[in-house]
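Q: I have 148 residues here and want to know how they pack in 3D. Can you give me a structure?
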Amino acid sequence: MPQPDHAVPDRARADHAPMAEMNTTPLIDVLLVLLIMFVITIPVATHSVDMDLPRDCADCPAVDPTVNRLTIDGADRLAWNGSIVGESQLAALLVAARDLPQEPELQFEPAASASYRASARVLRLVERSGVTRFGFVGNAKYRTFGAR
């Protein structure tokens, strides 16, 4: 004998009724894929300034093909292998050293009384030049604090 309508549970009636809500899972999947594609295609922001550095320096000292010593004295003067140079000359020398078939070692020795600002400026020039064989020398004399 068939049961009356009021005996059918509400759950059974709900299973046969059409779904009233939209299935948003595929929509969210598509949006995530599009978001990932947009993030991948955004160009990387570069914060650089292009500038032409001088390549030839007529009054620069010679570049040694094996080891070059860069020093800063107490008056913040730069010296390349003992010859006083300016920052523009130093930039040209660094590029010339970098462009040799075998890049020479660059040894950096600031004096104890050299200013931090001058040393930082020189280190920035060295970094921008692309020199890869770089080292600090003469640090052993400063092993104890206050030694000169």
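Q: Anything worth noting?
A: The beta strands are 67-72, 78-80, 83-85, 105-110, 134-136. The CA atoms of residues 69 and 107 lie 5 Å apart.
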